[in-house]
Design a protein that fits this description.
Helices cover about 35% and strands about 35% of the residues. The protein is of the alpha/beta class. The longest helix is centred in the N-terminal third of the chain and has 20 residues, at about 5-25. About 40% of the residues are buried.
């Protein structure tokens, strides 16, 4: 085990529980913010999926409509994504370590991922995403509900898992400061689990 390394906890955890976790997410209602994003994208859009997991949601939403680049810290999740997204460019690694050219993507999506990064990395990553997006590009992202500096859960689908996030209004204010306009705000997740979801657009 990775000891106190939070990203090691996340990587090892999803390597172990990924199939169970992905099956549970198949039950999630599809967020209306995702449908709004799909309608707004141009043909043959370039989409970056941060924390793509096994790629099921990405394939269902964008299959045949967009060119996908997926990044996930879990090699096991990327292995499953290669089966679900055979045409995508897939990267096993920490999103914070990735380099993309400015104005590379029409949209960035990130479901249930930012909340696993140490929160001192959230604003720098959101700032980099703003650069990775084309002018008027879109970001669809789930964020923290409450203010939680750092915590671990001992039984997340049978594994230890790490969490760190600010409360939802912090993300709204930060994104607006970075030059985004909030188009839609909602809640997604399982019946006993609620995650704010934001659809924003570069001004």
């Amino acid at each position: 085990m990775e000891g106190s390394d939070p990203k090691g906890i996340v990587r090892v955890g999803y390597d172990s529980c990924g199939s169970r976790y992905n099956a549970s997410r198949d039950l999630d209602p599809r967020p209306e913010q995702l449908d709004r994003l799909i309608e707004a994208l141009p043909p043959e859009a370039e989409v970056l999926d941060i924390g793509c997991g096994g790629g099921r949601l990405t394939e269902a939403a964008f299959g045949g409509r967009a060119s996908i680049t997926g990044v996930d810290i879990s090699p096991a999740q990327i292995a499953e994504a290669r089966r679900n997204l055979p045409e995508a460019k897939l990267i096993a690694g920490d999103i914070v370590a990735q380099q993309f050219d400015d104005a590379s993507f029409d949209a960035v999506v990130s479901f249930y991922t930012l909340i696993h990064l140490p929160r001192d990395e959230h604003e720098p990553l959101l700032r980099r995403i703003a650069h990775w997006l084309k002018p008027a590009g879109y970001l669809l992202i789930t964020v923290g509900q409450t203010d939680t500096a750092a915590c671990t859960e001992s039984d997340f689908f049978g594994v230890e898992m790490f969490w760190s996030h600010f409360e939802a209004n912090w993300y709204v204010a930060t994104l607006e400061h970075l030059g985004f306009e909030v188009l839609s705000r909602g809640v997604v997740g399982l019946p006993l689990e609620h995650h704010p979801i934001l659809l924003v657009q570069r001004r």
